[in-house]
Design goal:
The complex is a heterodimer of chains A (460) and B (282). By secondary structure, chain A is α/β, with parallel strands linked by helices. Chain A has 10 helices and 23 strands. Chain A is elongated, with a radius of gyration of 34 Å. In chain B, helix 6 packs parallel to helix 9. Chain B starts with a strand and ends in a 5-residue tail after the last helix. The chains are: A alpha/beta (460), B alpha/beta (282).
Chain lengths: 460, 282
């Protein structure tokens, strides 16, 4: 609630001037000529020196005025909302709604209140600061349940203002309020591991109750297969593949609808949307320090099982090194470098066509951990669809046992109490720069006023 | 500031039987009514002196000769006239109210009159230049024409008094509204001289208890500096004022200066009674 504008603080110097004029100008009209002035001036100087506390007390009235005017502005607060969008919030509530939808609903109700700044920290995602209500609301609406390596307890919460945590878990924290939405049924099944060797696929499925699932395998040619999977605790499905798999899904996989499918590959199309991309990225953890990938340059015609000379004729060096910070993919298999004017013989044997881009093959060479891309990567790497392509490529290149599934805890939550280490101090007020400027101007003005004129001591 | 004051001649008539009292005998060569340390002709016997040829025969004490068969001459204290200094403070603070400067002036004139009655020489300090009065006629004429003019630096002007010959008594008539440190320096200077000093402080009631609440603001009558005042400052003023008075009394006692306060509500007759009680006038 705002009932005084910070601009009213500018009235303080004006009031001081008026006060000064009243006492200085009007009383100056008829000062009495007095012989004992000596005793007044000496009394004053002595008093100022001997009773400094009095001077402090003199400061209290203008300070009270300032703070009385300023205090209403402090109710304009800052919030930090931590929104749990981890996989466990994909469960259903008693009402049949998804937990995360209720969390979003509550989060948006916070946004409707008065605030000067709000920081939204999704558990799976980057924190963003907002000062505009509509932008903050839209950000929350766009949030979805995701799988990520982060979880609530490991999340670093650098909050501003009052901290609210919205989650399906029970929160223990130092300075926060939390809103909990409890799921009604934790019955669930999920893919926990996929092994893929190019011709066969092994899918491990976990379930916490007896569930009849359907495993759906979609291929890059558009065809699909459905396999009935009666799960009891866990089950391993082995299936020979007709083609390169594109997506593996669990149909009717328990009460959590957000952990039921896994995208494997999609080389047939580059038009992936980012949501799928994100999901894939977070459904599996890719450790970039142990695995690398070299990308050969565009322009070299490479066919499988041929000897190829990588040479650098003019000022061009073969550089098979990729670092893409935006993707957080660090591909640093020893780069294949060719010094200018020299050449290097490479036998591109056992090349596997892993996809087509504009009718050109994308070929993987396991011996070199290299892949030939039929497009200029340096020009296209910022393209979101290329990012998706590369990620899918990586997920295909490395057998899935190299990926570790982190989502088991989230899909089958057992410990529902989370302790948060937050840096929040519980103070919800925040000074705007304009308000602060006026406040400090008022304070300094009041101090100067007292020091120079000291009205309570008969200054002027 | 320039003020025409009215001299209270009635007071002078009432003071006709009074005399100034001295503690120290210091006199000029001129004859007068005050006994001096000079030995010779006079009315008051001082001592015997063994007769030597050339001494007047009429001063030989024949009774002593009859007893001792030796000749002794009687010596008397010679009566000489003395110089009385009367310094009237004419700085701005003395002009705070007309009654204050009028009372101070009539006090000065009264003392000068007593001095002239005894044929003493009066030196008036009313500014930068001393004014010498030898007789009552000169005093009366002087008071008829006097117009008091404000002068700065009362105490520094008094240095000219040091140059006078045979000073005996100096009356300082002032409110002594100066910092004690400054007064101390002044009294240190005068304390080395062999003459008697009497400090007469003249005040009026408004200086003892000023009405700050009503006034609102005051202006230093000398420097022109202004300050707002209120009731809360009155206690501080009184406290400082009393402290100044105590310090002044103490200073005078240390320097051998007799100090008498002349409050505003006291009439001149009453004040002279106070002087009599203090053995400054008889």
């Amino acid at each position: 609630m705002i009932f005084l504008s910070p601009y009213l603080l500018s009235l303080i110097p004006v009031l001081m001037v008026i006060y000064y004029l009243i006492y200085h100008v009007f009383r100056k009209q008829n000062p009495i000529k007095f012989s004992g002035f000596l005793f007044i001036s000496s009394a004053q100087s002595k008093k100022t020196k001997s009773i400094p506390l009095k001077a402090i007390f003199d400061l209290i009235p203008p300070l009270l005025v300032i703070f009385a005017m300023a205090n209403p502005q402090i109710v304009k607060v800052s919030y930090t909302l931590v929104i749990d969008n981890s996989l466990s919030t994909g469960f259903l509530t008693e009402d049949g709604d998804i937990v995360f939808d209720k969390i979003k609903e509550k989060a948006i109700s916070f946004i409707n209140g008065q605030f000067s700044r709000i920081r939204i920290i999704p558990v799976c995602g980057q924190s963003v600061d907002f000062s505009d209500q509509q932008e903050a609301k839209q950000f929350i609406r766009d949030l979805s349940v995701k799988y990520c390596q982060d979880n609530l307890s490991s999340k670093e919460v650098y909050s501003v203002g009052k901290l609210f945590i919205l989650s399906d878990k029970n929160i223990i924290c130092n300075h926060c309020d939390f809103y909990r939405v409890t799921p009604s049924d934790l019955t669930n099944s999920a893919v926990s591991k996929i092994d893929f060797d190019g011709s066969n696929i092994l899918v491990d499925i976990m379930c916490n109750k007896s569930i009849k699932d359907t495993l759906k395998i979609e291929y890059i040619d558009g065809t699909s297969e459905d396999l009935a999977v009666p799960c009891e605790n866990s089950i391993r499905i082995e299936k020979s593949l007709r083609n390169i798999p594109k997506k593996v899904s669990l149909l009717d996989g328990g009460k959590n609808k957000y952990d039921d499918f896994v995208i494997l590959n999609d080389f047939g199309s580059l038009n992936y949307d980012n949501s799928n991309f994100d999901f894939l990225k977070k459904a599996y953890s890719f450790d970039p320090t142990n695995y690398g990938l070299a990308i050969l340059e565009y322009g070299d015609t490479i066919l499988p099982n041929t000897i190829h000379y990588v040479k650098s004729d003019t000022n061009k060096e073969g550089n098979f090194f990729i670092f893409e910070p935006a993707l957080k993919i660090f591909i640093e298999k020893e780069p294949l470098k060719v010094i200018t004017g020299s050449e290097k013989e490479l036998t591109f044997s056992n090349g596997i066509t892993i996809g087509k881009v504009n009718d050109y093959d994308a070929i993987f060479f396991p011996n070199f951990n290299s892949v030939y891309l039929p497009f200029d990567l340096s020009l296209s790497v910022s393209d979101s669809s290329v990012k998706v392509f590369l990620l899918n490529l990586i997920s295909w290149l490395y057998p899935s046992e190299r990926f570790r599934g982190f989502y088991v805890d989230e899909s089958f939550p057992s410990n529902y109490t989370v302790k948060i280490n937050d840096t929040n101090d519980g103070f919800s007020g925040e000074l705007s720069s304009v308000y602060a400027a006026f406040l400090y101007a008022g304070l300094i003005g009041a101090i100067i006023f007292i020091v120079l004129f000291n009205p309570w001591r008969g200054g002027f | 500031m320039r003020v025409k004051v009215n001299t209270d001649f009635g007071l002078l008539v009432r003071l006709k039987q009074k005399k100034l009292v001295f503690r120290k005998k210091r006199a000029s060569y001129q004859l007068g009514f005050h006994s001096s340390f000079y030995k010779g002709r006079g009315l008051e016997f001082a001592e015997y002196k063994e007769y030597s040829p050339g001494d007047p025969i009429k001063f030989v004490d024949w009774r002593v000769y009859a007893k001792t068969e030796r000749l002794y001459s009687r010596l008397f204290s010679e009566e000489r006239r003395v110089t009385i200094g009367i310094a009237l403070d004419l700085t701005g603070s003395m002009f705070f109210r007309l009654s204050k400067i009028t009372n101070a002036w009539n006090l000065a004139v009264g003392l000068a009159y007593l001095a002239c009655l005894n044929r003493d020489k009066v030196v008036f300090f009313l500014g930068n230049r001393p004014i010498i009065l030898d007789s009552i006629d000169q005093l009366i004429n002087f008071t008829k024409t006097i117009e008091l003019v404000e002068t700065p630096n009362f105490f520094s002007n008094l240095n000219s008094y040091n140059s006078l010959k045979y000073p005996s008594l100096l009356y300082l008539i002032s409110d002594f509204f100066e910092p004690i440190e400054k007064l101390e320096g002044f009294f240190n200077l005068f304390g080395k001289k062999q003459f008697e000093t009497v400090a007469l402080q003249t005040l009026i009631s408004e200086e003892i208890r000023p009405n700050f609440e009503k006034w609102g603001a005051i202006k230093d009558i000398e420097s022109g500096e202004e300050k707002p005042v209120n009731r809360s400052m009155l206690d501080l003023y009184i406290n400082n004022f009393n402290k100044h008075t105590v310090q002044l009394s103490s200073l005078c006692a240390r320097r051998g200066v007799r100090f008498v306060r002349f409050f505003g509500n006291t009439t001149l007759d009453e004040f002279f009674k106070i002087l009599i009680s203090q053995n400054l006038v008889r």
